[in-house]
Amino acid sequence: MDFNVKRLAADAGTFLSRAVQFTEEKFGQAEKTELDAHLENLLVRAENTKLWTDRIMKQTEVLLQPNPNVRLEEFVYEKLEKKAPTRMNNHELLGQTLIESGNEFGPGTAYGNALIKCGETEKQIGGAERELIQSAAINFLTPFRNFLEGDFKTILKERKLLQVKRLDLDAAKTRVKKARMAEARAAAEQELKMTQSEFDRQAEITRLLLEGVSSTHAHHLRCLNDFVEAQTTYYAQCYQYMVDLQKQLGSFPSSFSNNNQSSVSGGASISVPTIPVSASLPSVSAGRGGSAASGGFNELRSSNGSRKARVLYDYDAASSSELSLLADEVITVSSVPGMDSDWLMGERGSQKGKVPITYLELLN
User: Fold this and answer.
1) Strand positions, DSSP E, the chain
2) Pair 113, 102: CB distance under 8 Å
3) SS3 assignment, position 362
4) How far is Cα of residue 259 from the mean position of the Cα atoms in its chain?
5) In this predicted structure, what is the pLDDT of residue 271?
6) Using 50, 70 and 90 to split pLDDT, how confident is the model at 82?
């Protein structure tokens, strides 16, 4: 019983000593031991890592699930360690609606068949989206969350302990300064040595943990690569699904009879782009310099004639003076005096307008 009372009294005395030291530091009435610059920099980096890891994780969750109510529901299920109910995503819901409407209008009709095909494609995209979310959750969000809830909490715990050891050290320094009697001074100096040793040991522990943040950055970089790869796969799948759908819709007749009156559409046809998913964007410098392509364009300009050119990439006209382009189509191009060297005049039937040479490949 006496031992417990003495222990409680000692703990109360230590707590009071720390509180007094902390208060006097705040009012500028006591000196404060500063951490070395390297340790301070490590602490700042750890705080920034925590801040931005949290922001990246939350914004990724918003990207993968824009509905805040669904995110909240999933969070609750996660905390309760229960599996959230499976629900169709927006693409799957749209796909289901399109299929049902197509069946209503009749799979044998052009419109009904088109609705069903669109619905099936939307469902495929929904499935790809589900795979993306699952991959991102496992390979990207989970490691980020593990850092916040594991490693960083350990860092915070050791950092708080370092602060306590620092307060004990400075309180001991204050007692040495205030000691008047030789015996009291000797006891205070002995206590100072002990608190200094404990502070140094805790500072080293904290430093080692903080330096481990470099490994965290390396790990998160690998996770980021995994996330980008998952997105690449997702967008490639979506692109291929839509290209296939576009080809199917392009085979449908462009005119339909309505009440025995023929209503012909404007003759617009569906063009399927053939840009590979891995193709890079056109280089700003393409067609310039001493390349063979550049030589061909220079020859065209000097001859003031015209040539056939294949379009490499889709291009949307930015103004009425420009001509929109579709990948793989062939147009006629010519040079106009005074025109910027990066542009040519393009013609497609009766349509005419400026086109960027970086989107063209001259044909022999």
Assistant:
1) 255-258, 261-264, 306-311, 330-334, 343-348, 351-356, 360-362
2) yes
3) strand
4) 53
5) 46
6) confident
Distance (Å, whole) CA 352 – CA 359: 16
**Concatenated DSSP letters for 183-229?**
HHHHHHHHHHHHHHHHHHHHHHHHHHHHHTHHHHHHHHHHHHHHHHH
CA angle 242, 245, 251 (to 5 degrees): 145
Tens-place pLDDT, residues 257-279: 344 333 333 434 444 444 444 44
Tokens of 296: 């061909």
Closest CA to 218 of 149, 156, 147, 135: 147
Class of residue 2 by CB neighbours under 10 A (exposed 0-12, middle 13-18, buried 19+): exposed
What DSSP designation does 264 have?
Answer: E
Give the angle subtended at the CA of 85 by the CAs of 81 and 89, to the nearest 5°.
Answer: 130
Cα atoms found within 13 Å of the Cα of residue 360, Cβ hemisphere only: 31
Q: Tell me the pTM.
A: 0.60
Tallying the residues shown for the chain, one arrives at 364
d(CA 129, CA 231) in angstroms, rounded, equals 9
Structure token digits, residue 198: 């404990």
Planar angle of CA 30, 33, 34, nearest 5 degrees: 125
Rg (CA), the chain: 35
CA dist 184 → 1, 16, 181, 260, 332 (Å) = 29, 19, 5, 113, 100
Q: For position 266, what pLDDT does the model report?
A: 40
Q: Assess contact for 126 and 87: CB atoms under 8 A.
A: no
Instruction: Please state whether 84 falls in left (phi above 0), alpha (psi between -120 and 50) or beta.
Output: beta
- Could you tell me whether strands 343-348 and 330-334 are parallel, antiparallel, or unpaired per DSSP bridges? antiparallel
- Torsion-angle region of residue 287: left (phi > 0), alpha (psi -120 to 50) or beta? left
